[in-house]
Amino acid sequence: MEKILILGAGGQLGKELADALSKVYGQSNIILSDIKPIENSEFVTEIVDVLNSEQILTVLKKHAITHIYHLAAILSAAGEKNPALAWNINMNGLLNVLEVAVGLQIKQVFWPSSIAAFGPNTPRVNTPQFCIMDPNTMYGITKLTGERLCEYYFLKKGLDVRSLRYPGIISYATPPGGGTTDYAIHIFHEALKHQKYTCFLSENTELPMIYMPDAVRATMELMQAPKEKISVRSSYNLAAISFTPKQIAQEIQKHISQFQINYQPDFRQSIADSWPKSIDDSFARKDWNWKHEYNLPEIVKDMLFHIQKSL
Ligand code: SER
């Protein structure tokens, strides 16, 4: 039986992943943890600082955990403001989790990588699974190094660790924090509240994106796939759609005709410019039958509906 610990569950992905996991494994088998208390949760919660191995170990033993989803991280834009902290949390946090997981013979570990693991010399269109990766943000450097670490723990220690290179994740339930792709979330809130949005990326900046339900399903399908199907032990390229700020604005205007966007690119522009525009995820499609469901018009419609309801 699965007993699951989500580390960093207070972030953008944690709660939605927990809800989906609880439908399969039962709510009482999912434990949410974060460095800060998680308020008003229907799940059992714990405080865990991923830099504290003892704390991780204690919680794993206390709940007889079999599976870990390690989501605690500092994202790209936040990481550029405090690179040393991003390195410490993203790298030492991962190392601690992998070490403890090996020691306790944890059955499976999930760890997210990102399109940020690519860099300026990566082919930017249909970025292949295997190619030059020269990330130039601290976040991207920790993601690429983390991928190497995951594969190392699989090859040398037999740990069943699996990973996805997430595109920008679009969602309405929990606000994201400190990402470069976050404009594609802020834009909905501003469109509904003020009918205008100032975008921190330029109008034709194309980036790979995915809607939260697809991201959650991809994560679960990867983790449920038979071991022999998993041919990539660093991290799988994962794709859904790609669009620019201009294209998402035009789609929003179909619902809110007076919506206006203007552009004031800041330091996040150069981060976005070093990332792929689109991703070749044929390994995921072949190995575990990955298929995205949501395209841009459906995402926009669904986002506007849910954010409107919450306002
Ligand atoms: N969405 C993340 C970011 O923008 C990339 O993984 O930082």
Low-confidence stretches: none
Mean pLDDT over the full residue set = 97
Helix-strand sequence: EHEEHEHHEHEEHEEHEEHEHHH
Query: Could you please say which CATH topology of the largest domain applies here?
Result: Rossmann fold
Based on CA atoms alone, the radius of gyration comes out at 19 Å
Second rung of CATH, namely the architecture of the largest domain: 3-Layer(aba) Sandwich
What does this protein structure show overall?
With 311 residues, the chain is α/β, with parallel strands linked by helices. The protein has two domains: 4-166, NAD(P)-binding Rossmann-like Domain (Rossmann fold), CATH 3.40.50.720; 170-208 and 240-310, Alpha-Beta Complex (UDP-galactose 4-epimerase, domain 1), CATH 3.90.25.10. Helices cover 42% and strands 16% of the residues. The chain is built from eleven helices and twelve strands. It has helices at 14-25, 53-62, 76-81, 83-103, 138-157, 183-194, 212-224, 245-253, 268-273, 282-288, 296-310, and strands at residues 4-7, 30-34, 44-47, 67-70, 108-114, 161-166, 168-170, 196-199, 207-211, 236-237, 241-243, 260-263. Strands 3-2-1-4-5-6-10 form a seven-stranded parallel sheet, with helices on both faces. A three-stranded mixed sheet has the order 7-9-11. Strands 8-12 form a two-stranded parallel sheet. Helix 1 (14-25) links the parallel strand 1 (4-7) and strand 2. Helix 1 (14-25) crosses helix 7, helix 4 runs parallel beside helix 5 (138-157) and helix 6 (183-194) packs parallel to helix 8. The longest helix has 21 residues, at 83-103. The model has no long low-confidence stretch (mean pLDDT 97). Serine (SER) is lined by residues 75-76, 114, 116, 139, 166, 168, 179-181. Serine binds next to loops.
